[in-house]
Amino acid sequence: MKKKEKIRSYVARNPLMRKGGVHVKAKSSGRFASKQKLRKEVRECDSRPQAFAAIFSLISPL
Fold it and tell me: Are 42 and 55 in contact (CB under 8 A)?
């Protein structure tokens, strides 16, 4: 006779609790991090044309 599988957590299997799960960073945090990185590079940039070209290439990828 097959052994019946034991449900470990009734709360976890509750359909009302489907919103639970793996804790993942929000997508907005990734967008904010990229903007923050760009602002930092702009701040640290001096007025050399090479540095400006590098930053401009990050802003508008063609």
Answer: yes
Query: How do residues 6-34 score in pLDDT, each as one tens digit?
Result: 767 766 666 666 666 677 778 888 889 98
- Residue 10's alpha-carbon distances to 3, 6, 16, 17, 51, in angstroms, are 19, 10, 11, 10, 58
The 3-state secondary structure of 21-58 reads CCCCCCHHHHHHHHHHHHHHHHHHCCCCHHHHHHHHHH
What is the number of other CB atoms lying within 10 angstroms of the CB of residue 38?
A: 13
Model confidence, pTM: 0.38
CA distance 57 to 52: 9
What are the sequence ranges of the domains in the chain?
26-59
